[in-house]
Design goal:
Layout: H1 2-9, E1 17-20, E2 23-26, H2 35-60, H3 67-96, H4 102-108, H5 112-129, H6 133-143, H7 150-174, E3 186-188, H8 224-227, E4 234-236, H9 247-265, H10 274-277, H11 280-291, H12 298-323, H13 326-336, H14 343-358, H15 365-380, E5 394-398, H16 402-405, H17 417-423, E6 428-432, H18 444-475, H19 486-525, H20 529-546, H21 552-574, H22 583-613, H23 617-626, H24 631-634, H25 644-649
Antiparallel strand pairs: 1-2, 3-4, 5-6
Helix pairs in contact: 1-2, 1-3, 2-3, 2-5, 3-5, 3-7, 5-6, 6-7, 7-9, 7-11, 9-12, 11-12, 14-15, 14-18, 18-19, 18-20, 18-21, 19-20, 19-21, 19-23, 21-22
Length: 650
């Protein structure tokens, strides 16, 4: 009878027991047992039921592709082997001692009443997850405080951590994502996911060595130049993070792996990274030691990762700042996106004005504008053999209105050429293709923010140039019958130019130049790539804030002023061909001056109201430039305090 019970403890029902669902129970047609013995035997049979289910779980999932399920299976197999040895010991004792009782057997395996159910619960939940969330399930079980089953749960955790350390080591040391089933917390970006044959490691490569259950670190170091695509970007899956890996630590791990991929890809300059690759064995040894510990050493892991991050960040800083000359790239962006000293953009605007003012925007506009930019660059640098335009790193793109992309419909009339020409400059943006590896710094998001500043600056600059051209047009009226209107028109132009030139000077000198020089000093002063990114982000944030680009009331007031000034330029441009300054012209001029005063007043009130509840030095600087002698504030922003009647009187 005792042998039948021992067989039941190993999941074999035999002749005394039967299987009902997932449970093994004593047969009801055996009358030889007392009711108390039946209860004790069925309780022992519950251990056999859990053993049977664990064994079935291991056999069913033995060929699974999930690395973490396989790790759980290895832990379950080791636990069941310990349990089998225990049953064999009990069997030997029963053979030597015929007086053994059920109570003695129960006493010797009493702990397994708690161990096997806890391990089975982990297996059942892990079977639903099949990724790094299994580590959280195990960690939650350990946090329950069951001392009896702690060693068994830690056995599963140890095997799962082997897989975790293997994947982490492959990523940190070689930039490889050993994860065909998307189990790891670092994954390819949504638009760059690949299928099995395109992954860094094919499905035949195993993190686990089935023979001796040891971790493979060196087995995942292939020839990187042919197999790693550094254009791929990766992301941290926060829902797959183990609870003891913080989001900050996960981002550091992602950053290190992406940098290592880049180092491996730069096969032409491998000597640059000699100091990093010479420490690879040391880092591998540190990770190996951590993986062999029975408990996860959080502080030790963070210390190793932080050491690698600092080393990689310094290597990447050297690559980007010294070898790739990021300072020259910053100056290129300063010249194009932030207009630099104004020489290039002035030439471009003069060459592009016939394109944008002469005809409506069409499919050839973008080509013509790029040709104008190429000519401007060539005129400015006549001795340069190859400009940035010729290298196709910088080009202009036109955001065509929907009306130009879609056919006209009777219910939605299309804007005419005049309306399109007045909005044309706001449709221009720059496209910049940074050289490798500067795309890590100048991402599409960063360049989009540069473009927002560029659109504001080029609008102000082209209207300012238009007002200067208006001065030349006004000078041609000196010897005509319109000369008596010249003082009033010239004074109006002077007031408009005063506002625009002070606004542009504020943006270029007080905002861009000061922040740009400060940013360059800090970028060259640090030896940490992540600090470089922080300084780049600070620079962009500061110029966006100090340019009021995200402050809608100020931005709208400025754009309205630009529209009025541009319409004034169009009025003056047509005067030399006009026979007289008739009622139509006078009405338009009066309307322009009223609108200019209104928008100036609106801008002044907006700035002063912001100053009232959010005082800051850059806002004070702008108000000081606009109101240096108090005239602006005394007239509440109204600069033009005269009309055509004054000119008629004179």
């Amino acid at each position: 009878m005792l042998h039948e019970i021992l067989l039941c403890l190993l999941g074999n029902p035999g002749s005394l027991f039967r299987v009902i669902g997932n449970n093994i129970q004593l047969r009801d047609d055996i009358p030889m047992f007392h009711s108390h013995e039946v209860g004790l035997i069925n309780k022992l049979a519950s251990i056999g039921s859990n053993f049977r289910r664990l064994n079935a779980f291991a056999l069913t999932n033995f060929s699974t592709k999930s690395l973490y399920i396989r790790a759980v299976i290895y832990g379950v197999e080791e636990l069941l082997n310990i349990y089998r040895k225990k049953i064999c010991e009990i069997e030997n004792d029963v053979l030597r001692n015929p007086q053994a009782t059920l109570a003695s057997i129960k006493f010797r395996i009493n702990n397994y009443f708690y161990i096997l159910p806890d391990v089975l619960a982990i297996c059942l939940e892990a079977d639903q997850l099949r990724d790094t969330r299994i580590l959280n399930v195990i960690n939650d079980q350990l946090a329950s405080g069951k001392a009896v089953s702690e060693w068994a749960v830690r056995l599963l955790q140890f095997h799962c951590h082997k897989v975790f350390f293997s994947q982490t080591a492959a990523w940190l040391l070689h930039g490889l994502l050993v994860d065909n089933n998307e189990e790891y917390f670092i994954q390819k970006s949504l638009n760059q996911k690949t299928t099995g044959s395109e992954s860094d490691i094919d499905s035949g490569t195993q993190v686990y060595n089935d023979a001796d259950n040891t971790t493979h670190y060196e087995a995942v170091a292939p020839e990187m130049d042919d197999r790693v695509n550094t254009a791929q970007r990766f992301r941290v899956m926060s829902d797959l993070l183990p609870t003891y890996i913080t989001p900050t630590m996960a981002e550091k791990i992602r950053f290190i792996g992406e940098c290592v991929r880049m180092f491996q890809h730069d096969s032409r300059n491998k000597k640059r990274y000699t100091s990093f690759f010479t420490k690879e064995e040391m880092y591998s040894s540190d990770l190996q030691k951590l993986s062999e510990k029975k408990q996860f050493d959080v502080r030790g892991f963070e210390r190793v990762v932080e050491g690698m991050r600092m080393h990689v960040a310094e290597e990447l800083w050297v690559l980007i700042v010294e070898f790739s000359d990021i300072t020259a790239t910053y100056h290129q962006l300063r010249d194009y996106f932030l207009l630099g000293n104004g020489q290039l953009i002035t030439l471009f605007i003069m060459l592009a004005r016939p394109v944008l003012n002469g005809t409506a925007i069409n499919s050839n506009t973008q080509h013509d504008l790029n040709h104008a930019l190429t000519r401007a660059s060539a005129l400015l640098n006549p001795l340069s053999e190859e400009t940035d335009i010729e290298g196709q790193r910088v080009s202009l793109i036109v955001d065509y209105p929907e009306s130009d992309r879609q056919p006209c419909t009777p219910t939605k009339p299309q804007p005419g050429p005049k309306e399109r020409r007045s909005q044309a400059w706001g449709l221009i943006s720059l496209k910049y293709v940074p050289q490798w590896p500067l795309h890590f710094v100048f991402s599409s998001t960063v360049l989009d923010r540069y473009n927002r500043v560029f659109k504001l600056l080029i609008n102000i600059k082209q209207v300012d140039i238009a007002l200067n051209q208006s001065w030349a047009d006004l000078m041609t009226l000196k010897r005509t019958h319109l000369a008596r209107y010249l003082p009033l028109l010239a004074l109006t132009r002077s007031h408009m130019a005063f506002v625009l030139e002070n606004l542009y000077y504020y943006l270029q000198e007080d905002v861009l130049s000061s922040n740009f020089e400060r940013m360059l000093r800090r970028v060259n002063g640090t030896r940490d790539f992540e600090s470089l990114l922080v300084e780049n982000e600070k620079f962009l944030s500061l110029i966006m804030i100090q340019s009021f680009i995200d402050m809608q009331p100020v931005r709208e007031a400025v754009m309205s002023l630009l529209d009025v000034c541009y319409l004034y330029h169009r009025l003056v441009e047509k005067l030399p061909q006009s026979e007289s300054f008739d009622a139509k012209h006078r009405d338009l001029f009066e309307r322009l001056t009223r609108n200019f005063n209104k928008h100036c007043s609106n801008l002044y009130r907006t700035l002063t109201s912001i100053m009232g509840y959010q005082p800051n030095p850059y806002l004070c600087q702008l108000l000081l430039r606009l109101d240096y002698n108090g005239y602006f504030s005394q007239n509440n922003g109204h600069l033009i305090n005269f009309s055509l009647a004054d000119s008629n009187t004179t």
